[in-house]
């Protein structure tokens, strides 16, 4: 396993609770849209075993052509040890990234794509939208639906409807409106539904999509392949 040590080159305050940390791109480090990485602080590998409290699984919110690795996360007033350390980091501080992989690259299968997300989960989808806007080959259209009860919606400069690009973006601030919209979108039985958020959010969306007749193979989750059956088995617990 290769560990890349790199420096923070910019910190962007997206909203009062959400920050994006832009990291220098290490030599030979590559990734694609929908990627996640393991993001760690100094000392995480100092002992016999990795200190897991200093490591988090994070989505990369940028594309390689942006020349920085973006890590976007919510940091609340009361937060974990990891988030407390992160909140106190400054430009020039060093962090580690390793085990980078994409479970949700943009599928180009001549279908409509629906991006369903909660809050900062939108960070996973930002690169997919940028990739699509840059090159729409074999994607009919994309619709993004995001729920954020804080009403501080993220990346509104990217997630703005562009009819000429066949891209629509929708934000809602409550569950009732959100799931009504999901039901409407699920009228497209041939569409591809990408879902990003907490495990509870995933299960709730999968249940609604299943009830609307969407097949498991049309639901894309940011999970490793071996984890998917636990979410997409459609058993009675749903």
Automatic annotation (TrEMBL):
Domain FAD-binding FR-type residues, every copy: 1-107
GO molecular function: oxidoreductase activity
Signal peptide positions on this chain: none
Coiled-coil regions listed: none
InterPro entries recorded: FAD-bd_FR_type, FNR_nucleotide-bd, Riboflavin_synthase-like_b-brl
Name assigned to this protein: Dihydropteridine reductase
């Amino acid at each position: 396993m290769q560990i890349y040590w790199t420096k923070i080159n910019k910190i962007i305050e997206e909203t009062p609770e959400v920050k994006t940390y832009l990291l220098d791109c290490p030599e030979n480090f590559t990734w694609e849209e929908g990627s996640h990485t393991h993001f760690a602080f100094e000392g995480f590998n100092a002992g016999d075993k990795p200190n897991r409290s200093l490591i988090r699984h994070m989505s990369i919110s940028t594309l390689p052509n942006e020349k920085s690795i973006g890590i976007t996360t919510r940091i609340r007033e009361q937060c974990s040890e990891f988030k407390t350390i992160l909140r106190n980091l400054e430009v020039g501080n060093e962090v580690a990234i390793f085990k980078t992989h994409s479970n949700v690259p943009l599928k180009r299968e001549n279908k409509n794509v629906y991006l369903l997300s909660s809050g900062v989960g939108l960070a996973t989808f930002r690169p997919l939208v940028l990739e699509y806007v840059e090159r729409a080959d074999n994607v009919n259209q994309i619709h993004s639906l995001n729920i954020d009860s804080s009403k501080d919606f993220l990346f509104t400069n990217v997630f703005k409807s562009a009819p000429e690009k066949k891209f629509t973006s929708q934000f809602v601030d409550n569950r009732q409106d959100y799931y009504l919209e999901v039901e409407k979108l699920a009228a497209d039985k041939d569409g591809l539904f990408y879902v990003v958020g907490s495990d509870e959010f995933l299960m709730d969306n999968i249940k609604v999509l299943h009830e609307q007749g969407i097949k498991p193979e049309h639901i894309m989750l940011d999970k490793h392949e071996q984890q998917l059956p636990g979410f997409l088995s459609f058993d009675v617990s749903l």
